[in-house]
Structure of Diaminopimelate decarboxylase:
Amino acid sequence: MQAAAAYGLLGEKHLLAAFIDMDGIEKTVASLRAAFDDHFTHAFAAKANCLHRVLALLRQCGMGCEVASPGEFAQARRAGFLPHEIVLDSPAKTLGEIEQALRLGIALNIDNFQELERVTALMATSSSNSEIGIRINPQVGVGTIAATSTATRTSKFGIPLEDAGQRTRLIQAYIERPWLTGVHTHVGSQGCSLELIASGVAKVVTFAEEINAAVGRQQVQVLDIGGGLPVNFASDEFTPGYDEYAALLRTHAPALFSGAYRVITEFGRSVVAKNGFIAARVEYTKTSGDRHIAITHAGAQVAARTVFLPEMWAIRLSAFDAQGRFKRGEKIPQDVAGPCCFAGDILAHERPLPLLEPGDFILAHDTGAYYFSTPFQYNSLPDAAVYGFHIGDDHEVRFELLRAEQSIEHVVETSGLFK
Ligand SMILES: *Cc1c(COP(=O)(O)O)cnc(C)c1O
């Protein structure tokens, strides 16, 4: 924070910026790769942070990329991912997207039986190098956050394994289609326990073995077990770690580690969340009904989930002075508000912090995934600048611009101004 203030990346002219610890990402990916055997391929879920330099760095670190839209696909390609390093998972793939994926040899997970018919028709007239799987919903239930629990009984994702007749219909589908060589699942994300996730993965792995037994050979060769490792938003500790999750999978689904299958993972949030933060200037402070309120420049535009679901997505905040020095002193409950014009635009309610003053900065921790990288265009607020940083052995901080602050001219253009 001191370096950012000293370099003028934050201040009166630069009210809001986000930062990514590039060395931290490398370390996180190293811990991910160390936790699993070499027959695991780790595809980063692009929606968690689709910034070009972040994707490029993750590729350098040896990750693949999971995409779910034409935009994410284009971002992955531009970041250097080769077609065979990409997995396409959208639940709403158009015929055109499926055709393109099959033509380029991109791995593809089919979401439903109608999509299966489309792929079947295309596979009847042309060949493809794509690894093709079906997304299976193991229906293991809901975590503490419904919106990120994808393996509920009535989830919109995948084919529900426990619904009447589906298991038989799925097995028949594999028997009739030798090109169906994968199964896919993604049980859920934040709010799901490791046990819940591992039990969902285990069910789908067992089902893959059931398919192979029914076919009479190892037709299913790829097990894509999704992402979803929950992130600790309460402290600096990286818990649970990938090694803990891997250990749990070893007991729940040992086949993943037998070497008989190629295994793909799709971690997003856990790779980047703790390697990023948002910093914003405090513009004004006041009291209202005895409540201390600080009006800052970080609100729903960079922290939509926290603002709209404050209990479920609480994040840690720290206070810094205008020079970027950590603020100490008596902690007083304060509402830390954003700049948006709706009453709920609050990053934290009654949060005990040293009393904020105009010109101070507020830092929102663990926001490297699904925050500033996917902004919400409310009040026509510009997308924040994003800087990567490295800290040298001499404690010198080096910044690199990852995304420029959106100009007001560009904001106007995106409102439909034709030139
Ligand atoms: C979002 C998503 C992921 C990544 O989830 P995280 O919780 O960010 O790890 C992986 N796979 C699929 C299919 C997803 O939709």
Notes: Residues 2-19+274-413 form a domain with the Lyase, Ornithine Decarboxylase; Chain A, domain 1 fold (CATH 2.40.37.10). The radius of gyration is 23 Å. The pocket of pyridoxal-5'-phosphate is lined by residues 45, 47-48, 66, 89, 186, 189, 226-228, 266-270 (CB under 6 Å). The chain is about 30% helix and 25% strand.
